[in-house]
Amino acid sequence: MNIPGAESVRWHEMKSYQSRLAKGQVWKTRIAQIEIVGLGKRMIHYRITKHLGVKRVSAQISGIQAMEDYLRANQAVLITGISNN
Which residues are 24's β-sheet partners? Predict the structure, then answer.
């Protein structure tokens, strides 16, 4: 699933839950970038880095609702769309 113009999509502009968070997405906030590594029913695995491309960052786990709240509060912008893997 590709999101047209994904580089300019803001969190609050996305309509359905299914298109909000998905494996492979990279969200940018003022302080850091968050890469979605995996998505379960209630939990999300992600990497948070201050610079895109840093590979030696361990994956963290959080609740999906907590991540949605964080992205909304920090006005996150989707810079990389959904992975096909």
Answer: none
Q: What percent of the chain has pLDDT over 70?
A: 67
Residue 85 lies in a domain: no
How far is residue 34 from each of residues 40, 63, measured CA to CA in Å?
A: 17, 14
Expressed as residue numbers, the domain containing 49 is 6-80
Count up the domains in the chain and report the number: 1
Phi-psi region of 55 (alpha: psi -120 to 50; beta: other; left: phi over 0): alpha
- Rounded to the nearest integer, the mean pLDDT of the chain is 77
What is the C-alpha to C-alpha distance for residues 52 and 41, in angstroms, rounded to an integer?
27
**3 has pLDDT over 50:** no
Region of residue 75 (phi > 0: left; psi between -120 and 50: alpha; otherwise: beta): left
- Residue 65 has phi, psi (to 5 degrees) of -65, -40
Q: Please, are residues 74 and 30 in contact by the beta-carbon 8 Å criterion?
A: yes
Please report whether residue 1 resides in a domain.
no
